[in-house]
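Residues pack. Consider this:
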Amino acid sequence: MAPLRVLCIHGYRQNGSSFREKTGALRKLLKKNVELVYVNAPHCVQSACSGEVQEKQNGSGPAPAADEDPKGWWFSDIHAQSFSAQQQCEESSGLDESVAVVREAVKAQGPFDGILGFSQGAALVAMLCSLQEQNQEPDFCFRFAILVAGFCSACTEHQRFYSAPLQIPSLHVFGLEDRVIPDNMSRELLPSFLDSQVLIHPGGHFVPAASAHRPTYQDFLKRFQ
């Protein structure tokens, strides 16, 4: 049985390489059934920008402010070229370029069975799924989505992505001690997906991959194998 191929969308101030390292435990947990493929966001993030404060993958405390070569998918502050999930804004910058990056990744490295996103990347995944179901991206054919620490964008111009509930099966993962994307923000995204499962863990802002989480991931993924 061929493994499921999943496109991975990193968080703000990460990049594809650093996200691959941070999801090492998840890759090990799912290695027999899933191939994870990582892509870089197109926008460079200035180290001076506060943005999202990341935490170590074990949730034990704060990590350095940014990974080496930090990237972002869009900016909520178009003047400062920075991003905060809680920042209300009328318009953002950079989203079109990010959709184009995913489109090219699908063309060059696809097809993919599913898509996985973390934090800002998970918020982007919800938007990509909306574009797919609106038939605005004919190259997208994701069969499922995994959203870790996801949230609804607070930007007014992005509200169009939440106008109709999405049919794509989804797994929503979030931590009760997440101080970057509080669990209530992740819960607010749930009504946007009609066929959703939830994995709640007691930790912070990271992708959980303990042995206790394996059944939930595998039960979700076996629907598509």
